[in-house]
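Field guide to reading this record: the first block holds the primary sequence, the second block holds the structure written as discrete tokens, and the final block holds curator observations. Each block starts with its own label. This record concerns Phenylalanine--tRNA ligase beta subunit, catalogued under organism Halonotius terrestris.

BLOCK 1 — SEQUENCE
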Amino acid sequence: MPVVDVDPDELRELTGHDEKSDEELKSDLFNLGLEFEGETDEGELQLEFAPDRLDRLSVEGVARSLRYQYGDDTGVYVPDTNDPDWTYEVEDTVPEGRPYVTGAVVRDVNMTEDVLESLIQLQEKLHATMGRKRAKAAIGIHDLTMLKGAGVADETNAITYRGIDPDGDRFVPLDADSDMTPAEVLAEHPIGPKYGDLLDGFDRYPAIYDDLGLFSFPPVINGRRTEVEADSRDLLIELTGTDQWTIDHICNIICYALSARGGTIEEVEIDYPTATGPYEAVGGALVRPDFETDTKHVTHDRIETILGVAFDQREVLDLFARAGLSASVVSGDAADDAATDIDDDLPASVADADGLVYAVEIPPYRVDVLHPIDLIDDLGRAYGFNELEPRYPDIGTVGGRHDRTRLEDATRASLIGLGFEDLLNFHMISAEANYDRLNIEPGATAGDADRRLVGAGEAVEITGPYSEDYTQLRTWVLPSLLMVLENNTHRAYPQDLAEIGLAAEVDESQNTNVAEWRSIGAVLARNDATYEDAKARLAALCDDFGVDLETPPTDHPTFIDGRAADVVIDGETVGVIGEVHPAVLVEHDLELPVAAFELRLDALE
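BLOCK 2 — STRUCTURE
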């Protein structure tokens, strides 16, 4: 979860509530969903929150949310913008893997050292989250006074986004004293190895020029000439990436933060070389930032059903306004004429709804509102979840543990009795961790058999993941256990770890197209770990549940040849056991032998 450092004095200044103590601020922030995690050495509050509210990655965004909560601001706020004075010219030499650009000019920012630190933190957090460590979006913020725009036909200023040879033009990057080519930056600059892999396979590198030459090398580093300092007042923002929607919304978040610091937003023109290919969906010419608001619909009945509170129409409209949204009634027999604007083009999901339907306007910095339930969540926070009164359900039932849960608990107790330490890991993982680092290919089969290797199923991919570390559901548990061992090399050995957790793979025979199951994974990391040690533990586990175990030899690339076997229980192959291959150990920085096994939980029923 993202953690943001927030100066409480700045928060009081930006909210206009100097009377608030630190403890009161912590309580108010908790009601917004921001959890206090501690303090820095400088006394800043460390706040953790869900990564969906990216507009709160800065003190300015947190302060905005508090002002809405306090009722000082209401409804959707859209900053005024001045007409464009700068054009971003995009040449057809731009690499296909990074074709999009956006940005804005912000003038008269009340910049200080604290504001600069907040801006840098916002940039870093956006890179790490929505930007996927710069793979999807890279942000450049420059001192506008250090740029010289080349005049174009309408006499506006222009910068140019183009592709260049790796050994092409030279520039002085940040934290350097001499000029370098892009290739030299990747090879010699400290930041080069960190982001150089984002340009693997590129024949030409992305670069941004003004009339004086190269000043930005996205997604790696900016030039020193345009570095923003505490006395900078006018800023140029440029973002490049793989998706126009993503970079546009990141730009909006930055613009809103700088607007809170007194900045005046100035539009820029984006001039793409064509309206075909990757630009077909966005067109050949754009004006940015895009502060157009979105609208979603939600019914009054659904709000009351989800929150369990009876609201009147005016109260709902007021709560939406206090959540930073603007709502109006667009349908319903009970609608107040003064607040009604009947919409004849409602979505099918609400067009036939009985009673009130609200059209809710969403500000351009909100990237998390995807569904009406998100609107209800905002309304509930504005109302105050602590104000909700618990009530008994209308239907009485007798609770009890599910049979699978009882089996899982019994298995966990047995594993602990065998000396394993019980773990709980994330169910999501990256493709690299799930497959590559364990030497297996998706869809691989066991030798000549028409049976898929354990762990080689087709993973369920996450649409639009927020982090490249969590892009799919894991197909087996062992990768998670090896990552735990990798992160605990500083701990004492032996380390005997086990987990019972979710695994899944694509399966078109299921009505959801996904097969899910609970898998048992276990590892023994010690200087004398062997196949026999793992088999003894597995045999004891099977004996506890009265099932017959067989372990015929098998080949599995995660394990050493000749030291691996299938796990066959009651005649059915349900897993694998063996000594982990040295190449896999090296990949995880492990210096001791590891023996492991994995099998399906339901095999013990």
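BLOCK 3 — OBSERVATIONS
The longest strand covers residues 495-506.
The two ends are 37 Å apart (CA to CA).
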